Amino acid sequence: MKKLTLLLTSALAALGLTLGASAYAADQKNELEIFSWWAGDEGPALEALIKLYNEKYPDTKLINATVTGGSGVNAKAVLKTRMLGGEPPDSFQVHAGQELIGTWVKSDRMEDLTPLFDEQGWKDIFPEGLVSLIGTDKGIWSVPVNIHRSNDIWFIPKNLEKWGIEAPKTWDEFLAVAPKLKEQGVVPLSMGQNWTANHLWESVALASLGAEKWESLWSGDLKFNSPEGVAAWDLFGKILQYTNDDFSSLSWQQATDMVVDGRAAFNIMGDWAAGYLNTTKKLEPNTGFGWLPSPGTSGNFIFLADSFGLPKGAVHRENALNWLALLGSKEGSDAFNPLKGSISPRKDSDLSKYNQYAESAAADFARDTIIGSLAHGVVANEGFMNDFASVMETFLKTRDSKVAAELAQQIATKNKIGQ
Ligand code: GAL
After folding, report:
1. Confidence at residue 16, expressed as pLDDT on a 0 to 100 scale
2. Mean of per-residue pLDDT scores for the chain
3. Does 303 sit in the ligand 1 pocket, CB within 6 Å?
4. In terms of pTM, does the model score above 0.90?
5. What atom in ligand 1 is closest to the CA of residue 146?
6. Which tens digit of pLDDT belongs to each residue from 43-58?
7. Distance from the alpha carbon of residue 269 to the mean position of ligand 1, in angstroms
8. In the predicted model, is pLDDT for residue 209 greater than 90?
9. Of 129, 173, 200, 271, which one is least surrounded by beta carbons within 10 A?
10. 71 in ligand 1 pocket by Cβ < 6 Å?
C-alpha cells in the first residue's frame, strides 16, 4: 500500500499535482495546523494571535507546529520536505518577495488569495509596494503580518556611557572605536551562526554600495564580481576582525544577550531584536536599549515582511482562510506586532499600541528609501539564498574577498538573478 501511495505520489508529482486534500479527505477533524519558526523566545507575538483565534473559533483545535532556528534555517528545510511530500501544513510562514514567488508560487504550490483580499478590502489597506511583492499577474499569494527592518545596530546606552563611547554612524567610526573596546576585553560586535553573518553582510554591503548599486545587484546591472562587489567583501572582512570567535555556535538571541550582558558593545540584527529586548528581556526602548540605523545606512530601510500563505492541498482549508483573515485584520495585526518588534503592514494601524522603537521604525519606513532584504527572502529566491550560505562559509574560512565575489556571481548566474 505504501509503495502504491509512493508510486501515485510520484506520478501525480510528474503532472504537477499532489495527493493533497484527497489523500486526507478522511481527516474530518476540526483542526488547523500552522507552521513557522516562531518558537520559544520568538513565540509571544504568534501566541497572541493564536489566543485571538482560539477566542473566535473555540471549536477548532489549532496546532502550532514550529521548528526552531532564526530566519527559518531549519524550518524551511522541513517545510520543503512536507510540501514536496504532499503533506503541506494548512498555512505556513514565508517571506514576502522572492522566497514566496520564486519558490512556492513558481512551482504552483499556492492558492490564489485574491478573493480573500477583495472580501477584506485589503488592496487599499496594505501598501501597494507590499501587495506587488506578494503578487504576480496571476494572483495574490500570501497575507502579510508585519514589516520588519533588517538594518539596525543595537546597544545598551548605560554600557556605552561606562566605556565612554558613542554608537557609530559609519563603519569608519566603528573601526576607530573597535580596537579600544577590544583592549578593554569587550567584543566590539557580537555575531551568531551563519545566517546572522548573511544578515550582517547585507547591512555592510548596503553601506559600501549605496542603495542604487544594491538594487543593481539584484536587477543584474551590477555584477557581484565587479570592483564594487569585491569592496563590499573587503569592508565585511575588516569588520569581522572585531566579532566573537564562537559566533558559529550562537543563536541570534545569544548574540543579543552578549550586548545585554556587556560582553559585547554592538550587534546588527533585525528589529525582532527590539521584540526580544522589550518583550522577553523587559528592557525599555531608549532607556534600557538603544538603536540606530546600521552604520552608513541612515535614510535607508532594509525591509522584509513575514506572511502566511495557503498551500494547495491544505486539509483544513476553511480554517486556514479564517486564520489568514485574522492575521491580516487590524485587531490581529495590532495584537501581534507590538510584541514582535515589527510594525503593522496595515495603513490604518493603531500606533498608540506600539512602543518608541516601533514609532521610530514607522516614521523611518514612511520617509526612507525602501530596500529589499537578501537574508530574509525579498530580493532572491531560495536557490540563491542557500548557495549564498555556502559562499559565506567559504568567506568565513578564507577571508578572501575576490573568491567570495566570484562565487557570488556564479551563484547569481546559476539562480538566474536579474534574468
Ligand atoms: C526573520 C523573520 C523574523 C524573525 C527572524 C529571526 O527571517 O522574518 O520574523 O523570526 O527571522 O528568526
Report:
1. 38
2. 94
3. no
4. yes
5. 9
6. 999 999 999 999 999 9
7. 10
8. yes
9. 129
10. yes
Q: Place 403 in a pLDDT band, splitting at 50, 70 and 90.
A: very high
Beta carbons within 8 Å of 67's beta carbon, 6+ residues apart: 35, 37, 39, 74, 75, 78
Residue 373 Cβ inside 6 Å of ligand 1? The answer reads no
Top mutation candidate among 93, 98, 148, 327 for ligand 1, by most atoms within 8 Å of CB: 148
Q: Tell me which residue has its CA closest to atom 10 in ligand 1.
A: 71
